[in-house]
């Protein structure tokens, strides 16, 4: 064989190998997508319960649209969308469709705020009134002489009121940020003030995040959405995303309509949120993956598109609370696995992301229907199982035992959890049901003769008997114990 022929043969073999490798990788990814779509399971399952497909669960929960992206080894491995961006107009959801990200907005906001700190324009451990120019926080006796810092705002440890915001219908009067903070019309939310002293404990406050938005505006002299695009979104490559409210620079077909569980769309298709830092980001899973991947690389010192390693580690370190960092929550598990994560809820939208602190894995799920919180955990469980993401598969199987009709009947009645809040226990056939005041009825599944579990949530109920064998109360286990007395 001549030298030229040998080189040609080697080159051809190499190209064939590369193509076959790419083909196998594509087939492998496609297979994983099919597995994810076919293995949705709830966090709590009973023995014998079957798994479900994506389409089955979307139909079951009346979900109009779901968009997903998966990160593996610091790369977005795939993204896929299901259902409708607008059902009535027959606009299908695509991976480019934008959703309101709700409180996920806070994660990107923290990057923008900390960029100012990194550039020595602010100190996150200084009194916020040092940087507030157009409005000052009115300290009172509830703050007990302590000053609120920017770090307090970003970690929900400022002791402030107003958990979240409802947004405004299109055409409604939109308040200024100062009006929002003072609770003055046309603002539809309460005044943002001290609830207790700063630094005392965790208290989620979108109101506090909104103060950080005003600091950004006052320090930079720029509209918040422009500062965030120029200094955070564009450097991250999130060029499809925007904090504009409403998103006037985006094509209408790229904007998802928001829905209620009954299939009715939100009036005006979506709400407007002047509280941009807390709830105003329009984005999609593909763009959010860029944020997650850059955060992971910056945390490991391999990139610094917005924040360097030092500031990224400050951002992802829990502050006063064991899990609340600056703009994200840290989920730590027994085997040292850690994820930074945040969920988001706006009117008719709900979302969730996870990113591993090490290893470069993660996921994003965005839903355009208000009860999307029911399907999101099932999708997370499926992705975690298929990809082997440690500790993200929260599904557990419970064994159901047989309980006699007489025993079940003895548990029926009303239990007072707190004043004006009763849990009514009823029996139908051989099944027991519970109904909280003002809530829907749920079935209780027996795991022992006296202890029952819910499939809808990680909640257990144990009935208590006195020395004479009479049922006198119950204990509810949900991240702790809460006792209730039988009153009827």
N-to-C span: 96 Å
Task: Write down how many β-strands occur, each being a DSSP E stretch of 2 or more residues.
Answer: 19
Report the sheet-strand fraction. 15-25%
With helices defined by DSSP (H or I, 4 residues minimum), what is the helix count? 12
Instruction: Give the strand line-up of the largest sheet.
Output: 12-13-14-15-16-17-18-19
Looking at the structure, what is the overall shape? globular
Mean pLDDT: 93
Main sheet attributes: strand count, strand direction, barrel closure: 8 strands, antiparallel, barrel
Uncertain regions: pLDDT < 50 for 5+ in a row?
A: 1-6, 12-18, 20-25
| Rg value | 25 Å
Helix content: 25-40%
The computed structural class is alpha+beta
Structural description of this entry:
With about 500 residues, the chain is of the alpha+beta class. It contains 12 helices and 19 strands. The chain has an 8-stranded antiparallel β-barrel. It has a 7-stranded antiparallel sheet with strand order 4-3-2-10-9-8-7, sandwiched between helices. The chain has a two-stranded parallel sheet with strand order 1-11. Strand 13 (about 420-430) and strand 14 (about 430-435) form a beta hairpin. The radius of gyration is 25 Å and the shape is globular. Residues about 1-5, about 10-20 and about 20-25 have low confidence and may be disordered.
